[in-house]
Amino acid sequence: MPHQSGRILPEVTEESRPFWTGGFDNALRIHRCRSCGKWFHPPVGACFRCRSRDVGPEQTSGRARVAAYTVNHHPWFEAFPPPYVIAAVELEEQPDVRLTTCLVDCEVEQVQVGMAVEVAFDLQDDVALPFFRPVTA
Q1: In the predicted model, is pLDDT for residue 3 greater than 70?
Q2: What span, in angstroms and rounded, lies between the C-alpha atoms of 3 and 103?
Q3: Does residue 65 contact residue 134 with C-beta atoms inside 8 Å?
Q4: What is the C-alpha to C-alpha distance for residues 112 and 66, in angstroms, rounded to an integer?
Q5: In 3-state terms, what secondary structure has residue 96?
Q6: Whole-prediction pTM
Q7: What distances in angstroms separate CA 8 from CA 3, 35, 49, 79, 129, one per listed residue?
Q8: Contacts for 111 with CB less than 8 Å, ≥ 6 apart
């Protein structure tokens, strides 16, 4: 069901709570395996690489690079007036960990694969949606 902002908010589970609420502390929290040290997303109770259950959320730098993107021109939701950029960003800590997100605070024409971005949170009631914006020097 859409939120009063017009956004459709995620269902928060015990495993996903640190991801969806970290933005209230300005922290992008991604699950990491304490056995093999690898990051992974979405958050689940075991590492898919080594099968360890010794996993949990850790704060990342919040920096990433655009791996792929598309520009949406259709007015699907009132809260997202077109055009806007939907991107897959790869985390600085581990490039094979990617998040699908919207890019904000930049013109559509500025977006490039490889562009450095940083997390920017959109606070909505009990969730902080992680969007990304270009890194400014």
Answers
A1: no
A2: 20
A3: no
A4: 7
A5: coil
A6: 0.92
A7: 6, 35, 32, 9, 11
A8: 66, 69, 71, 85, 87, 103
Query: Given pLDDT bands bounded at 50, 70 and 90, which one contains residue 8?
Result: confident
Mean per-residue pLDDT for 42-49? Answer: 96
Mean pLDDT on 21-31: 98
**Taking a C-beta distance cutoff of 8 angstroms, is the pair 46, 17 a contact?**
no
Residue 94's pLDDT band (cuts 50, 70, 90): very high
User: Which percentage of the chain shows pLDDT scores above 70?
Assistant: 95
Q: Are 106 and 38 in contact (CB under 8 A)?
A: no
Rounded CA gap, 48 and 33, in Å?
A: 9
What is the pLDDT at residue 1?
45
Token pair 């969730």: residue = 127
Strand pairing of 98-103 and 84-91?
antiparallel
User: Which CATH fold would you assign to the domain 17-134?
Assistant: OB fold (Dihydrolipoamide Acetyltransferase, E2P) (2.40.50)
Domain boundaries, the chain: 17-134
